[in-house]
Automatic annotation (TrEMBL):
Pfam families: Adaptin_N, Alpha_adaptinC2. One of its GO terms (cellular component) is AP-1 adaptor complex. This is AP-1 complex subunit gamma. Keywords: Cytoplasmic vesicle, Golgi apparatus, Membrane, Protein transport, Transport. PROSITE patterns: GAE. The keyword tRNA-binding does not apply. GO terms for biological process: intracellular protein transport; vesicle-mediated transport. It is a peripheral membrane protein. Residues 651-738 form the GAE domain.
Length: 738
């Protein structure tokens, strides 16, 4: 191909290339020819060569070697070369390159040229790639052109001023006066540029915003003229007079009327007129109506006007264009909190959008449907949402299920799981029903798993439901752990549930140990940590599960014994929160019961036992407690084989209230640190209406026990339980005196 071929021939040769390698070869040969001609001093085809280079740039090939040629052509006196030079500058140069500064003087000279088209080239280039330095240098020239008599130049100068304001905010004040005067122009292009410039100035400066609020009546008159004007062939678009200018004016009115009642009142009538007179059958009409709706909802408009705006959005929901339906639901989502009743009127249409084929529309419809759920429509809305849940795409299932749960789950968000568990835990009558429902669901869908499998073996469950065997439950949990469909969090729930079942299951403990031990080397760190910790519990407390089961049986039997009128039980039944009454918080003294049916008198025990006395028994009385348990005739023989060290499982003692009078409550909780050491935490609160100051906590112990009281958290108790005072006490019983 000859280097002198015209642009059309080069384009034809590039398009005829069969491979990308062939195309690169054509471009490389042409670029080499262009570069050689650029180096010639007298080159009459510079504009022709630069035009070809710009086409090469559009194809994505490097063309930076033409930047200096652009600078030279801009300085040319010929219009044909200036036009290509300015076009090349806008495509090849930007404000980060030093070459852009070389054209500043040329632009300044061309802004003063008598030819309006040369002025236009300079204005377009400055508005496209002018740097902050160029804007500061040429801003006075732009302000001068804003006052020119030529409408063609003024509209381009207005748009150039917008670029300058965006680059250098401080120069906005320079164009304020000229921008307001442009609103009186008859030329739509000049008015359009003025509206865009005023919008930019108002968004940048609050003082300028207050100043331009006085132009609201002028803008209203311009807008009314566009709405009621007849057919104008120069500005008509599908029956709407200059919809581009209408949209710009509505956006500016929205900014001026925001948080200002005076400006809002001045435009209410206009907005109502536009909303009722604009044709909604055409896309351009919908564009104007949408801007009208946004303006009505953003200013301090009348309530009737806001209802009219919501109704327009409701009509948009029935439009065949999915884009219009999408923006309608997006707008309704923003106002559903403030105009809930108005949006509720379109609930049926919104719910129908759940059946839309477009995924984006369906997602917006789901968000809006969930926001519309209220106490009055919850039954009907739940019916629609459950129907949608059964057929919705997988990516929306989690959001739908979580929304249903939060409005009135396997597909729920992570934060929903503890909420549901807490709800079930606080409602005892739901325990049996919920666990069995989840168990049955788990048989068909392994994505649902709970940690409350031990309810399956409760007495209430066995009486109410068909018996579920230990192997059945373990089979299901093992399936969940081994399934490739289970999420890591699901496996974590299943492993924890399996571990908890070790306190209920007696014949399959070895199987549970085997299941847990497998995951001690799992690649998932969280699952591995759980398995290692559970294995450590199994190894350290070999009889833990047996002791827990026995303790639960003791507690259930104690209630039966007392209700039958037999001899006093081992511990006070009223201490529900403390299974074995290790603190002896009840008024009943701790004493062993005789054998059932025996008439032998009970062992004498001092009735002076108090909470403090029994607390000391924890330090040296574990052996005594174990012996008393062994005297019980209704403990199975397996428990009697346990060592006293097994009781260390229960080293954490429940909280006990030790003082409650005149609004002051003191609670005590303790934790065993070693065989002879115990840490006690005292917590005080004040439920009265006045603060208590100078508050101190004191404690006394026998001489055989060492007492160390640490500093309290404070000496004042705020009223109404606003804060608590805590103090830690360390007890040591080195001689293990009972």
């Amino acid at each position: 191909m000859s280097p002198s071929v015209p642009l059309q021939e080069m384009i034809r040769a590039i398009r005829s290339a069969r491979t990308q390698c062939e195309e690169r070869g054509v471009i490389q040969r042409e670029c080499a020819a262009i570069r050689a001609q650029f180096r010639q001093a007298d080159n009459g085809g510079r504009s022709h060569n630069l035009a070809k280079l710009l086409y090469v740039h559009m194809l994505g090939y490097p063309a930076h070697f033409g930047q200096m040629e652009c600078v030279r052509m801009i300085a040319s006196p010929r219009y044909s070369e200036k036009r290509v030079g300015y076009l090349g500058a806008m495509m090849l140069l930007d404000e980060k390159q030093d070459a852009s500064l070389l054209i500043t003087n040329s632009i300044k000279n061309d802004l003063s040229n008598s030819n309006q088209y040369i002025q236009s080239l300079a204005l377009c280039t400055l508005a496209c790639m002018g740097s902050a330095e160029m804007c500061r240098d040429l801003a006075p020239e732009i302000d001068r052109l804003l006052r020119a008599s030529n409408s063609y130049i003024k509209k381009k100068a207005a748009l150039c001023a917008v670029h300058i304001v965006r680059k250098v905010h401080d120069l906005g004040e320079l164009f304020t006066k000229a921008a307001r005067s442009l609103l009186t122009e008859k030329n739509h292009g000049v008015v359009h540029g003025a509206v865009v410039l005023i919008t930019e100035l108002c968004e940048r400066n609050s003082e300028t915003l207050e100043r331009f609020r006085k132009t609201v009546p002028d803008l209203v008159q311009i807008m009314k003229g566009l709405v009621i004007s007849g057919y104008s062939p120069d500005h008509d678009v599908a029956g709407i007079s200059d919809p581009f200018l209408q949209v710009r004016i509505l956006r500016l009115l929205r900014i001026l009327g925001r948080n200002n009642e005076g400006a809002s009142d001045a435009m209410n009538d206009l907005l109502a007129q536009v909303a009722t007179n604009t044709d909604s059958t055409k896309t351009v009409g919908n564009a104007v109506l949408y801007e009208t709706v946004l303006t009505v909802l953003d200013i301090k408009s009348e309530s009737g006007l806001r209802v009219l705006a919501v109704n327009i959005l409701g009509r948009f929901l029935l439009n065949n264009d999915r884009n219009i339906r999408y923006i309608a639901m997006t707008s309704l989502q923003k106002i559903v909190g403030t105009d809930h009743n108005a949006v509720q009127r379109h609930r049926g249409t919104i719910v129908d959008c759940l059946k839309d084929q477009d995924a984006s529309v369906k997602r917006r419809a789901l968000d809006l449907s969930l926001a519309l759920v209220s106490a009055s429509n919850i039954r009907s809305m739940m019916k629609e949402l459950l129907s949608f849940l059964s057929s919705c795409p997988p990516e929306l299932r989690s959001q739908t299920a979580s929304g249903i749960f939060n409005a009135a789950g396997g597909d729920v968000r992570d934060e929903t799981v503890p909420n549901l568990i807490q709800l079930i835990t606080n409602t005892s009558e739901l325990h049996c029903y919920t666990v069995h429902k989840l168990y049955r669901a788990l048989l068909s869908d392994i994505s649902q798993v709970c940690e409350s499998g031990w309810f399956l073996f409760s007495e209430e469950t066995i009486q109410t439901w068909k018996l579920v065997t230990e192997d059945d439950v373990l089979d299901v949990l093992e399936t969940v752990l081994q399934s490739h469909m289970s999420f890591p969090s699901t496996r974590g729930f299943a492993l924890t549930a399996t571990m908890k079942l070790s306190t209920r299951i007696t014949e399959n403990v070895d199987r549970i140990r085997s299941i847990v031990s497998i995951y001690g080397s799992c690649i998932d760190v969280e699952l591995q940590q759980r398995a290692v910790e559970y294995n450590a519990l199994f190894k350290k407390y070999d009889h833990m599960s047996l002791f827990c089961s026995a303790a639960i049986c003791i507690w259930m039997h104690l209630n039966n014994v007392q209700s039958a009128g037999l001899s006093p039980p081992l511990c006070g039944v009223s201490q529900v929160c403390d299974l074995l009454d290790l603190l002896g918080g009840s008024e009943q003294p701790l004493q062993p019961s005789p054998a059932l049916g025996s008439t032998a008198p009970p062992m004498p025990v001092s009735t002076a036992n108090t909470v403090g006395g029994d607390l000391l028994d924890l330090l040296g009385g574990l052996d005594l407690l174990f012996k008393r348990l062994m005297h019980s005739p209704w403990l199975n023989t397996d428990l009697k084989l346990m060592q006293p060290s097994t009781l260390s499982v229960f080293s954490v003692v429940a909280t006990v209230t030790v003082y409650e009078k005149d609004g002051v409550t003191v609670t005590l909780s303790c934790e065993k640190q070693s065989d002879s050491g115990l840490t006690v935490t005292l917590t005080a609160s004040n439920s009265t209406e006045s603060d208590i100051r100078g508050f101190t906590l004191q404690a006394a112990v026998p001489k055989s026990v060492q007492l160390h009281m640490k500093a309290p958290s404070g000496d004042s108790l705020p009223a109404r339980g606003a804060a608590k005072v805590t103090q830690m006490v360390v007890l040591n019983n080195p001689n293990k005196v009972a």
